[in-house]
Amino acid sequence: MKTSFSRLCSIFLLALFMAAASGNAQAEEPESTPISSPFKLSLHGELRHETAVRLQKPQEISKNKHFAYLELSGKFSRSFGFNVSGRGYYDSVFDFPSPLYDRSVERDQQWDAELRNAYVDISAGPMGLRLGKQQIVWGEAVNLFFADVINPRDMREFLLPDLEDIRIPLWAADLEFFFGNTHLEFIAIPVLEHDRLGVPGSEFAFGTPSLPPDVELNVAEVRMPANNTRNGVYGFRIGQFVKGWDLNGFYLYGYDYTPTFFRTIEIDEATERVTLNVTPEIARKRTVGATFSKDVHGLILKGEFIYDRERNFVVDDPAHPTGIAKSDYFEYLIGMDYTFSRRLDFNAQFFQQYVLNPIDNLYRPDRASYGSIWFKTGFWDNRVEPEFFAVARIPRAGEDSDFMFRPKLNFNISNHILAAVGADLFGGDPTGSFGQYEEKGRMFVQVRLLF
């Protein structure tokens, strides 16, 4: 584990490099700043500040985070290129006189410095190989993860950051072949990671099943498989473009990156003290999936289908020996994209999830239907861009809804300075994916400096 001193040094050096890059940046091209070099290199980055305030009383600041991001990419020839990027942040909310969170949350979320991407691209004829630390994206859902199953996720701020920031890059080999309208892809991931979840007491810690009263809780470290070829993640995807239809099918021999919390109960006969031992483990998962998209006179139709074999699910039954039951699982999404009058970008999605085998006392619904909408438009030469995203569970008889609304107003002040204000609102079933955070609704402001 990295020491606090080394991580702070990493953040300082990252910020120092970014400040140097900013001083040399060309004003008319924030996305890519060429460096004087015989090679084709570009250096760019971002400084960002985000503040969030809870809407529920007490209306306290829940986040005051400062980001620094730097990316160096280049191409030495038509067949060889590279990309290296790093990111660091510091959340000064933990420095406020009256701390909102305890020390365990501070240790987990106050600051971080990490290498995001570090890969080379090699191409030869119909073949392309990306080798190194990277994100591999197979899904097309808007603001949600469906066929996007390869990279684990940083869920400490739920689904609120951009998906690119939520994904945890992995050391991997991604080999692709292109033959006319056919696309083949093979991936191998020898080094494993798991989802990063909010620790208890953090703003977006996941809800847990009810426990018996007066129980001592003992949570072990996450048990990970050893990093070797036998325990690696492997998958392939085949795509075909047929009469305007972009069709893809894939298989992934991977893992459920969200730890499975196996539990056992011990009772001391002498004192009658009850201890609940929880052991988080990363479990194997076999996934078969398919995606499609089709442009019909400017209307983009798309869909994603996922089938998992013997996935683990939490059982809300203290008498259950492990608290976990297995079932096959199926989910699908159908969506559409359309731009109205060349001004309003619109997306709508409908998706359903099925736990296929009957499980008694299942903690989540065995079947759920959801809908989502997203739209964005612009005024005054797109200097001001209203944006809105909403997702909600469609309740069955006797069920509560479960929803998240995200209104946002973007300000494109210049090519280098962007700002936004908005809200993240939750409600519905207190055990639902969104309703569990009903009291964590917030207003936020964001300022970004690009160079």
* Helix-strand category: mainly beta
Mean pLDDT: 90
Strand content: over 45%
Which range best describes the helical content: under 10%, 10-25%, 25-40%, 40-55%, 55-70% or over 70%? under 10%
The SSE order reads: HEEEEHEEHEEEEEEEEEEEEEE
Total count of strands: 20
Envelope shape: globular
Note the gap between the termini.
Answer: 32 Å
Question: Helix count?
Answer: 3
For the sheet with most strands, the description reads: 18 strands, antiparallel, barrel
pLDDT < 50 stretches: 1-31
Radius of gyration: 23 Å
Quick structural overview:
By secondary structure, the protein is mainly β.
Description of the structure:
With 451 residues, this protein is mostly beta strands. It has a domain at 125-153 and 165-334. Helices cover 7% and strands 54% of the residues. It has helices at 4-24, 103-109, 163-166, and strands spanning 33-34, 40-54, 61-77, 80-91, 111-124, 127-134, 170-179, 182-189, 215-219, 233-242, 245-267, 274-296, 299-314, 324-340, 344-355, 367-376, 384-394, 402-412, 417-428, 442-450. It has an 18-stranded antiparallel β-barrel. β10 and β11 form a beta hairpin. The longest helix has 21 residues, at 4-24. The protein is globular and about 75 Å long.
Summarize the helices and strands and which ones pair or pack:
Blueprint: H1 4-24, E1 33-34, E2 40-54, E3 61-77, E4 80-91, H2 103-109, E5 111-124, E6 127-134, H3 163-166, E7 170-179, E8 182-189, E9 215-219, E10 233-242, E11 245-267, E12 274-296, E13 299-314, E14 324-340, E15 344-355, E16 367-376, E17 384-394, E18 402-412, E19 417-428, E20 442-450
Parallel strand pairs: 9-12
Antiparallel strand pairs: 1-2, 2-3, 2-20, 3-4, 4-5, 5-6, 6-7, 7-8, 8-10, 10-11, 11-12, 12-13, 13-14, 14-15, 15-16, 16-17, 17-18, 18-19, 19-20
